[in-house]
Amino acid sequence: MERRFFLNHSPIDGVHFTKNANDFTVTEIPLYPFSGEGEHLVLHVRKKDLTTWQMLQALSEISGAKVRDFGYAGLKDKEGMTIQYVSIHKSHEKAFENFSHPNIKLLSTTYHNNKIKMGHLKGNRFFIRLKKVLPTDALKLEQALRTIKAQGYPNFFGYQRFGKEGDNFEQGLAILQGKRRERNKKIHDLLISAYQSSLFNAWLSRRIEMSKLVESFSEKELAEIFPWDKATLKSLKAQKQFLKLLPGDVCHHYPHGKAFVIEDVEAEAARFEAKDAVLTGWLAGNRAMRTEGIAKEIEDVYCAQAEPYLAQMNGARRFAWSFAEDVEWNYREEEAWFEMHFSLQKGSYATVVLEEILRREL
User: Fold this and answer.
1) 222-256 per-position pLDDT tens digit
2) Which residue range or ranges hold the TRUD domain (predicted)?
3) Could you state, in order of their start, the residue ranges of all structural domains in the chain?
């Protein structure tokens, strides 16, 4: 399904964005402060034009440690500059005393009691610079960021999830269908994850489309569009937040807590507006909470094809909506640069926020 955007302004086509070390920076936000003691050496590193795997390989060659012995909280893109934390047993500390690499800088070191594990981060802070920005486009960008700061954004999976050719999800489906074999477990899991992500994105696009219809038409007009009773339509029209909730939806306490099936739509809509709970979408697979009623009917349209393969996938719930924090921006008119900073929850994509702001896919 075609990607749907939440914001309503016309696409901003003239600005220029390049994902390079000068114009795109990711700074990891740790889940917890490091203790300063323990058997694990924590390296605070800055890399550019390298994938996380390439960086770890370089660290491995310098230290003599195996790549699998390093701990890290998340994989970062090759393009741009990344500042993140990596751990290794402190027995390798001497190898980093005179560390030098053209694409990696060691910013500082400390110690911790445990190895850093995947997912052990609060989120990431991003810096993005757009170029060739006219004053009229700068005003649109500023208003878009104000809206996202206040209301949040749809939490799509980014284009990175789907590979250079955009067909990773098709390869993932082929694996599930037994039409393709992939012996590399990491690639196997990546392709299946891309398939799950494509279903999620299609479902979220539909929910955005439905929410726009609810905001655009009267209750009477909606009765001609949706086959739902008056009480449901009245509930939809009464909701103040953009992404509307339906009976049977699964929400999640935000940013931490548990998932739950909605029992009182009005109450959960108020909590959604207050950023205390948000709607979630299904990453198709086993052992994940499922929607009910009307919400399940919509979910099934996009996820029914995955039903025969659920036992082969690990299911989960993903925030359908998320909130950017510490949003800042600056327009440098003389250079025609528009610069922005914002922090996102782990698993969210800065490029998705940028696409929303520009109202076009990168």
Assistant:
1) 999 999 999 999 999 999 999 999 999 999 999 99
2) 152-322
3) 24-123, 157-322
